[in-house]
Specification:
The protein is built from 13 helices and 11 strands. By secondary structure, the chain is of the alpha/beta class. Strands 1, 3, 4, 5, 6 and 7 form a 6-stranded parallel sheet that branches. A 3-stranded parallel sheet has the order 8-9-10. A two-stranded parallel sheet has the order 2-11. Strand 6, helix 7 and strand 7 (about 195) form a beta-alpha-beta unit. Helix 8 (about 205-210) packs parallel to helix 9 and helix 12 packs across helix 13.
């Protein structure tokens, strides 16, 4: 099974060097509050060298995570679009991250609650949050919600692109919505104070889940369908419903932000500003769906990308807008401090420091603290 997360991790050996990255941005404009801001990536990845299963993070990857300025990273543990072995694979993935946090306490820390969020910001560490991008690891056993809560999982995305036991993903033409089991799962997640995430969900699934949840929900990584109509992007009605319920919508750095060609920083800003118009400044964030480290566009990367897209098409999980010629990063944001670059761009367009702070992570932090306690 090759999902986008697997491909991103597989390309982690093709990273730009830290020296080149630092030199390229040494003279760039600065957004003064960045060093003290609560910067949160609602969906991102840090990968071992060449994506080898269980490979420890290299010194370069750890250093790039430190230099990113991120205070919190929601990172995916476990597979998507598969039930067989999903529980076991998720436990192994959590174990990997527990080891990395223990190995690098000066850089990483586990984040489970509001106090941890505050500590990550105060101590200038990268707080790691375990999230699912598919509820498949839970299977039919709601008691596993309790197991995963004890293991540190704090955000559960209900579906990936296809239909599962909970409801329809965004590629299902039937758009059948949330199942009875899905209603029960949301109730259990609410009881255990785990955030519900509706990225990748079908539109009816999202609408019904927002209504069913007694707590605010996230759409951790998406775009605006009114700007670019793609299955992965959300309609104004979905965006507004999340905001009306107190939740947050994260804009991603993905090909789906434009009709064709490689996504640019200008596309990201355009979707952020549209989401601000629809949701209000208290309900918009950023979930890159990218690696924290920059990617070097090597021949190896291009070949891996082609193979990943072809395999996703074969499996029926490739979304409209995925292309062998369009890569999974934004070239003019392909640096470890891309959140800072976005802050500079937003500031240049007249957004206040307070609003920028909310977008960079303040909004995610508020909702996370409210739900997790």
């Amino acid at each position: 099974m090759i999902d986008r997360r697997t491909f991103l991790i597989g390309g982690a050996g093709a990273l730009a060097s830290a020296w080149a990255n630092g030199r390229a941005w040494a003279a760039a404009p600065r957004w003064a509050p960045y060093a003290d801001a609560m910067v949160i990536d609602g969906c991102g990845f840090i990968a071992g060298e060449d994506g080898a299963p269980g490979a420890a993070l290299s010194a370069q990857l750890v250093d790039e995570a430190r230099r990113s300025g991120l205070r919190v990273l929601q990172t995916t543990v476990g597979p998507v679009a598969q039930y067989e072995g999903a529980y076991e694979e998720t436990v192994r993935s959590i174990g990997f991250w527990e080891n990395e946090i223990l190995a690098h306490p000066e850089v990483f820390m586990a984040v489970r609650n509001r106090a941890d969020l505050d500590a990550a910001r105060r101590e200038k560490k990268l707080g790691v949050v375990y999230q699912f991008q598919d509820s498949a690891p839970i299977g039919e056993k709601l008691e596993r919600v309790d197991d995963f809560h004890r293991l540190g999982v704090r955000t559960v995305q209900l579906t990936y692109n296809l239909r599962n036991l909970v409801g329809d993903g965004c590629l299902e033409p039937g758009n059948a919505g949330l199942s009875r089991f899905g209603h029960r799962l949301i109730e259990r997640l609410n009881e255990r104070r785990i955030l519900v995430d509706l990225a990748h969900s079908g539109r009816r699934t999202a609408t019904e889940a927002i209504a069913a949840s007694k707590a605010p929900v996230l759409i951790s990584h998406t775009g605006c369908a009114s700007l670019v109509e793609r299955p992965r992007n959300k309609t104004d009605a979905e965006l507004r419903a999340v905001a009306d319920g107190g939740g947050v919508v994260g804009i991603y750095l993905m090909p789906f932000l434009r009709e064709s060609g490689q996504t640019t920083a200008a596309d990201v800003i355009r979707h952020l500003e549209y989401a601000l118009k629809v949701c209000g400044e208290d309900h918009v964030g950023i979930g890159t769906d990218n690696l924290v480290s920059p990617v070097r566009l090597s021949e190896k990367y291009k070949q891996q990308h082609r193979e990943a897209i072809q395999e996703r098409r074969r499996l029926g999980i490739s979304a409209a807008g995925e292309s062998e010629e369009v890569y999974l990063f934004v070239p003019d944001l392909n640096t470890v401090d891309r959140f800072h670059t976005l802050a500079v761009l937003l500031s240049a367009r007249g957004h206040s420091d307070a609003r920028i702070g909310k977008i960079l992570g303040g909004n995610f932090a508020r909702v996370m603290g409210e739900v997790w306690g």
